[in-house]
Amino acid sequence: MGATYEFWLTDDSGNKMFLLDKYSSVYYTRCCNILSTIQMSFAFKEWFSQVKPFFQPDWRIDVWRCPGQGYPMRREEMYMLRKAEIYTRKSDGIQMIILRGRNGMELLNRRSVIQFEETSYTDKTDYIDDMMKEIVREQCLYGSCLNISGAVDNDRGFPVDEFVVQEDLSLGPETTLSCPDRVVFDIVKELRETSFALNYSDETKRKIYYSVSPFIMTDGRVGYRFETYADLRGADRTNGVIFSVENGNMLEPTYEENHYDEINACYAKGQGLENERLTYELENLTLIQKSRWNRCEEVRTATNEDGEDGLITAANTALAEGRPIFMLDATFLNTPGSEYTPRSLYGIDWDMGDLIPVNYAGKQFDIEICSVGVSIDEDGSESIIGRSVENGE
User: Fold this and answer.
1) What are phi and psi of 67, to 5 degrees?
2) Which of 38, 165, 211, 232 has the maximum number of C-beta atoms within 10 A of its C-beta?
3) Are both 220 and 282 inside the same structural domain?
C-alpha cells in the first residue's frame, strides 16, 4: 500500500470547510527557511458547486500524508491561499481553476521594522535566535507589536492567540544588527546566514534555523508559531540509509570543487579616518596554506560599525561568502527498496531538513536536504524528490 493523502480547505482561522478529494493535480514544496508553496487544480464547475465564493485570500489548504500502511497521518504543511487563476484548457475545453498559496513563512513578508532608526527597536545586540524572536514579537505579535514610536499597537498584530512566538532559548551566537525600514522575512533570513557565517569560522557557534509552523490551539483551531532550531532543522540520519546511485535512491548527482571566488583573508574596516580607523583582520590559515599562492584577500567596508563586534561579524560573513565551494547537487528519491537496494521512504527514512549520508565520486558526504517537492496527479500517483544544498568546507 502506497502513501495516502488528505487535503482540507479551511477558513482563515483553520476551521475545516471541505475535504478536497476531486483535484486534477497537486504540487507542493516544503523548504528550510524559505517560502514553501502549493499549487492545486480543479475543474471549475466541480469546485464552484461546493465553494462559493470560489476564492478568499488566506483560506488555507491543510495537507496530511500517511507514508504507508501502519504509519499515522501527519501534517505536511498548511498553506495560505493567495492567488486563484481560472482558465479554459485547450485540450478539451474544460474550465479549470488553479489555487496557489504559501506556508506560514508568508506572514513574515507582511510586516516591516517601521520604528525610527537608532532606537532599541532597530539597533540590536543579542543571541541570534533571541534577536529573531524579539523582532517578530515587536512587529507581528498581538500584545507586543509596536507602532512607529514604539508604543504597543495591536492593529499591527496578527489575530490574538492565533500567532505565537516560541520562548527565548539563547542558543545562537551573539551579533549586532541595524535593521530600520526592512521586511521581517529578509531580516530573519539575514540573521540565519550570519549564524552560518559565524559557524563557518568557529563550530562552537551554532547555526540557527527558523520556521513559522502550524500548531493546535486550545480550542482545536490551527494557528501559527514562530520557532527557531539550533544546528539542524530536521534529524541527523547520518547513521541511516546511505544514498548513492548504486543504491537506487539518488538520481543525476553532480559534484564540483570551485575555488574561483575564494576569500580566505579579510580586513573589515569600520568608522574612523586613516590610522585611527577601526580595523579587524581575520584569516583562514587552513585554506591559505592549500598552496603557496592561495592567500585571497578582501577589504570589507563596514562604516556603519563603531565597535569590534560588528567588524568581527562582517569579517566572518566575508569569509563565509567567499569560501571555496564543494558542491554536491542531487535528487533523492522516495523508493520502497528491493532485494538489492535499501528502502528510502520519504517521511520515514528521510525528510525535509534531515542530514543524510551520501556516497559519490569516491567521497562520502553528509548532506542536508533543503527542500522536498511532491506531485500528485488525479489518479493519486505521487512523485517525490528531495534536493540537497552545497557542502562548503
Assistant:
1) -70, -20
2) 38
3) no
What local confidence, expressed as pLDDT, does residue 291 receive?
97
For residues 60 and 149, membership in a common domain is answered with: no
CA trace torsion 297, 301, 305, 306 (10° rounding): 80
Give the tens place of pLDDT for each residue, 187-209: 999 999 999 989 988 899 999 99
| C-alpha cell read off for 329 | 547537487
Shared domain for 54 and 98, answered yes or no, is yes
| CA separation for the pair 155, 140 (Å, rounded) | 10
Does 270 fall in a domain?
Answer: yes
- Looking at the structure, tell me whether residues 50 and 161 fall in a common domain: no
Pairing of strands 4-10, 16-19: antiparallel
**Residue 27 pLDDT class (50, 70, 90 cuts):** very high
Terminal CA-CA length for the chain? 42
Non-local (6+) Cβ contacts of 340 within 8 A are none
Determine how β-strand 325-333 pairs with β-strand 382-388: antiparallel
pLDDT tens readout for residues 100-155: 999 999 999 999 999 999 999 999 999 999 999 999 999 999 999 999 999 999 99
Domain count along the chain: 4
Element (H, E) at 46: helix 44-50
Full domain range(s) for residue 310: 260-323
Do strands 163-165 and 222-230 pair parallel, antiparallel, or not at all (unpaired)? parallel
What's the CA gap between 127 and 337, in Å, rounded?
A: 44
* 47 and 94 belong to one structural domain: yes
